[in-house]
Amino acid sequence: MAGPYENPADRSDIQTRISALANFEYRGALYAEAKANLFREIDVFVFPTRYRNEAEPLVVLEALRAGCPVIAYARGCIAEMLGQGGGFAIPIGTEFVGPALDQLEVWRGEGGSFQSRREAAVRQFEERRAQSIALLPELLETLGIHSI
After folding, report:
1. 56 contacts 80 by C-beta, under 8 angstroms
2. FRET label pair with 76: which of 4, 20, 52, 59, CA 20 to 30 Å apart?
3. How many domains in the chain?
4. CATH classification at residue 109
């Protein structure tokens, strides 16, 4: 698990709970190369965000770019970001763990290495990147920007 503490006042209690878990590692907040290394080490990025104003989280794009399939709640643009093959979006308002575990079993049944999922994640990122680049001139025109 990685990421900063939402509430630093909870740090001690959370660290105590984490220390009691077997096979669990908390790496804290990760940035730059440390985050890229994490995505290379893991099979799947699980992002059960409950942040009600989630829009288009950069961390999902970072995972896809690194070839790491994503399982996340379908908040904001996440379902669209995952598209066809980049991951699995769970409907908001439903239980997360059961569907996430079921999807992991499906992917594991594809060969266990998650390699086909990794390739699909990269394809999804590249398709989204190409779409964004294609739309950039229109956006700049709309904003009245004629050179950058």
Report:
1. no
2. 4
3. 1
4. 3.40.50.2000
List, run by run, the mean pLDDT of 10-residue segments along the chain (148 residues). 86 89 89 92 92 92 92 95 88 96 89 73 86 91 84
For residue 136, give the H/E element and its range. Answer: helix 115-143
List Cβ neighbours of 99 (8 Å cut-off, separation of 6 or more): 88, 90
Identity at 98, one-letter amino acid code: G
Nearest to residue 64, comparing CAs of 129, 122, 3, 127? Answer: 122
Do the domain assignments include residue 96? yes
Q: What is the pTM (predicted TM-score) of this model?
A: 0.79
Cβ-proximal residues to 107 (8 Å cutoff; 6+ apart), any chain: 44, 69, 114, 117
Indicate the SS3 state at residue 63. helix
